[in-house]
## 1
Amino acid sequence: MPDSSHPTLFLLFARPLRQLGLLTAMLLAVTVPGAVNAAPDYLSFATEDEANSTEIFSRASPAVVYVTNKALRRDFFSLNVHEIPRGSGTGFVWDDNGLIVTNFHVIAGAHRLTVTLQDQSEHDAEVVGIAPEKDLAVLRIQEPPADLVTLPLGDSSELTVGRKVLAIGNPFGLDTTLTTGVVSALGREIQAPSNRTIRGVIQTDAAINPGNSGGPLLNSLGQLIGVNTAIYSPSGASAGIGFAIPVNTVREVVPQLIAYGRIQRPAMGLELASDRWVQRYRMEGLPVVRVYPGMPAANAGIRGAFRNSRGEISLGDIITAIDGREIRSNDDFLSVLEKHRPGDKVEVEVRNGDDQRKVTVELSAQN
């Protein structure tokens, strides 16, 4: 038997097989009419993955919109005020009443907002609610058409690393662009425009570039699983690390923005020291500056700062933990409150000098 590992022998051995293949094809051409023209038709052929991507894009792209942020500028010479584009991004239709979800940083500082739909019709939009701490915003377009397409909502808790994802957006002003990738990691943390920490963020290698912000991240069923919000890149363009706010966070935040214009969180009724002050004096915990009378913190016996007999300001209680979770910043404090509702009771650990104690605070509604 010839040694097929040797190149020359392999070629010599392969030649009769090629001849046999040619003879077989000739026989088929004679015995089977039209067999020579039986090559796959590209227009009708698609791999399973290609067919899935094409179907999702066809169904979801009509729900994706182009958001333009316009600002007013005064001409230096004529003093006339002109309207100029300040930036652009992506959004998607939330419901058939014309509500649009996008990123807060896409619409921040706008004097006028316009939304361009899939049919290229342009609509003025007004801000319904904003959540800078989650980098989300809700807009409403005026006189929405009757045939708006919405996206089905998925469940981001079902995601696992390696699952396919698709992003649709308007990178660099190029409208309705599809990119695909996988879930690269889960549970990431990024910084919101308000310097709050957004937790539980989805990391993906689907190409996300400037202009994609606010666009949908979809799973292989075409369900919304996230809102694309940021990229990690030394150059400013996609480097294969993009981030999306999980849809389970969007589910919680958007209805509050529609109803109240902001996130509703329970309150304790106190004022806390700034993070900069805490870092400057290397405090372990979060000092209470002021406690409002009649509010939960005051009712629980928490004390704020006060002036001593010499007129100097003395520290009151310092919050060190809530429900066993360490509190080192205002972000920690607010993140704990966001997990509760008015009427919930939390255990607050405070320190005042050498005195440490635990108090129970019943949270109230935010004023």
## 2
Amino acid sequence: MPAARRTRAAGLAPASDAPARLRVGIIGAGRVGAVLGAALTAAGHDVVAASGLSAASAERAARLLPGVPLVPADAVVAASDLVVLAVPDDTLPGLVAGLAETGAWRAGQLAFHTSGAHGLAVLAPAAEVGVLALALHPAMTFSGAPEDADRLEGAPFGVTSRPEHRPVAETLVLEMGGEPFFVDEADRGLYHAALVTGANHLVTLVAEAADLLRTAGVGDPARVLAPLLTAALDNGLRRGDRGLTGPVSRGDVGTVGAHLDTLAERAPGSVAAYVAMARRTTERALAAGRLKRHEGAPLLDLLAGHVPGSLASERAEG
């Protein structure tokens, strides 16, 4: 891809000699849709319509898609050559089917959705009438903050398409500033579960750790956690299970037991999460050879006795 095209896709104004090539409509001008619309505008396309129900969507559209009218979804489709479907996973099937039932889709259009959980099957009602259907999922977190537009630069996009449509999918991703990689239709669910585990659950773990530090009297948890978590993330990405440290990796049953006792007393709502993660960490450490079987077995026995509602837990409490 030419360097000039990449620069425009990063969020800068389009070059004067780059005419709009496609009329683009955004259904779901939320955290993702508005950002992608802005990237497509910067790449030389013309965003002509968008839809969004919330006040936040209207504000975001006004900021990222200035001058673009907010209209109903069927009007977005009617006005567009390329339709971007950036709606929640559970909403997508009904939306695509509903638009098909009203005859909104037309042959020759392009449409892509941004859902990680869905592949091409959800777009079948549109494809059946001749729409070129793509699944382009930015593997990036969007918070609704102004810096979201910058996060597209170099962001990986999980792409699912028919083989003959791969050049179209790749071009669109590159124009938006991203880097495409291909995910088979059958693997789409597992792909999305992996990203949720890595990103969404990570946020929960960080917030949980910060809450526990506050309970322990630490006034600025972020200052304590930032260097530790940065190093841990780097170790995990570079070394995988070999980057594991801490009491589980050492087989320190006493320390893990003490943690459980402390959590039960000071933060009982955190016990189940600690047990689940410690158990999975032990299993992975065993599989990777970080723990010997005789070291891991006592840990697993200890954790089994602290599963809420389990017979072992009830016996331990009795």
## 3
Amino acid sequence: MERLIDPFARPISYLRVSVTDRCDFRCTYCMAEHMTFLPKKDLLTLEELDRLSSTFIRMGVEKLRITGGEPLVRRDIMQYFRAMSRHLESGALRELTLTTNGSQLARFADQLADCGIRRVNVSLDTLDPDKFREITRWGRLDQVLEGVRAATRAGMRVKINTVALKGFNEDELFTLLDWCAAEDHDLTFIEVMPMGEMGEEMRLDQYWPLKDLRGRLAERFTLTDLAERTGGPARYVRIEETGQKVGFITPLTHNFCESCNRVRVTCTGELFMCLGQEDMADLRAPLRASPDDALLEEAIRAAIARKPKGHDFDYSRQTVRGQVSRHMSHTGG
């Protein structure tokens, strides 16, 4: 089958699939405490997620990242992971991975490893139990740390994703770095998007530019820029004194579009061709219109033909829910 190529000759080889809008945390920069979630009928079924993902893989996707919400809270989600593992076995899929808050990792780590997952991104913004409970509202740090340990025991490489939050975890910069070094975890810092108000939390007050964070690191360590890319938006440095690899995701202050090979699909089947723009295509309708995949393939190709050259974060046009989903879509290259 002819591979997916966008109008700027970029092959589309990386797909992010959200399998649920639900989460067992309520992180203050991500969700309101009392969320109204989508009706079940609006969500793609596990079978539909299999069909959709498999279609993209036939069309050239080689890396598949599963996201949420929190993907591991979806009922029977391992059925979908097991279905995707067949593409690893066939060689069509090069990598199957997920981004998680870690709360359910202790429960699922061995099964995920059995499905061929070798790398997992865990969102973790603090190592202080009280601050963790404050920012997640409902989370327990010990549960997440046990999940991280379980993933490591199962043979998965863990990358920690930390959202840089002014006035919250500034004082933990070196604590997090030292912990990741001791545990042999990679670490990526993510710049929060200051996109207005989410309940009682003001995003502008939380904005900590990563150039400032990097400057703090450079006061203590020697940082060497790396050419490495993982298919995501992160830029990496090596800390010469420790050998650690540290990533920076800066959607506001750095344009990472020139080699963009990725698209994302929401749990309702909306395909976003750019992580920073509102344009999307409905894939649920063609998916449900026919058991044959011809209509779905046609809709995907038509959407990729509209993929823009770069993103445009014009916050004046965006709704809070759109801002949140877009911010979370950046977590974890």
## 4
Amino acid sequence: MTATDLLARARAGDGDAFRELTNPHRRELEVHCYRMLGSVQDAEDVLQEILLAAWQGLNRFEGRASVRTWLYRIATNRCLNALRSAGRRPIKEWDMTEIEPPEPTRLGEVTWLEPFPDARLGDAVSSMPGPEAHYERTEAISLAFVTALQLLPARQRAVLVLREVLAFRAAEVADMLDTTTDSVNSALKRARAALQRHMSATGESDAPPAPTSLAERSLVAKFVRAYETGDVEALVALLTDDVLVSMPPIPFEYHGRESVAGFYDSLMRTDRRYHLVPTRANGQPAFGAYLSDPTGQVRHGSGLLVLTFSGDHISAITRFENTALPWFGLPRSLPAR
């Protein structure tokens, strides 16, 4: 059945036709909302609003653009509305009472950031970008990129994602945002410059190993061995000189090997043993981290770790709360080994 037939049936109230018309775009729309909002939970909520708005607005769809472009128009404007009206996830205080962390190097700004499970990406980042895209789809879902996006003004963020990740034409973006092509081009120029500043502030970065390659698996194995045995020296040896450790929604950030070594010295005492369960987030290696309780009978989920690689070293470790574990199909606790 053609898209025209599906649209006609959907306009007549056929819910199945509407789902068949929109389902091919659900994953990429969710990823778009995640890039815009930096939060998996917010992206899920806004996606439901988008689909409801599309269902209710079918009769106003004139067909001058494709269904996909029309859905992106709704999605982008719903995200902009959410950014204007919603409060961000509040900063969280340090809550490990048994650990006294060293003074952080600095306080992070994007404390609402959440990890996106690779299993939910589907083909949203596997297709080749259009000729106007500037960023590869996999790069454009990385934690570093999504974090930098959150520091841009909302409309600049929307323009940059639509133009340089999704490769919509300037005229299409202008129509989506009810503005002019000149305004889109001006916003894109400012967004490019600001994004470059934010990305450069994280330090120089070499190309990471290819996902699941032998080089990546070797580096991951070394990290797991050092982390699970509490070998801080071996862990620090895997890090770049300008490594960054962050832990949203706690704003603490540790920058540089010496600072990170001090943090892990406080975290990995002899009576604290972790077990790491592998997964992937934002196109990067990730792990559910489980801490053995004092009795050794249960291992409780303490958080989710996401690694960023630069060449054959780790340039960032981002720790998220254990509330993220179910998004990755990971349990809140594990039985003793």
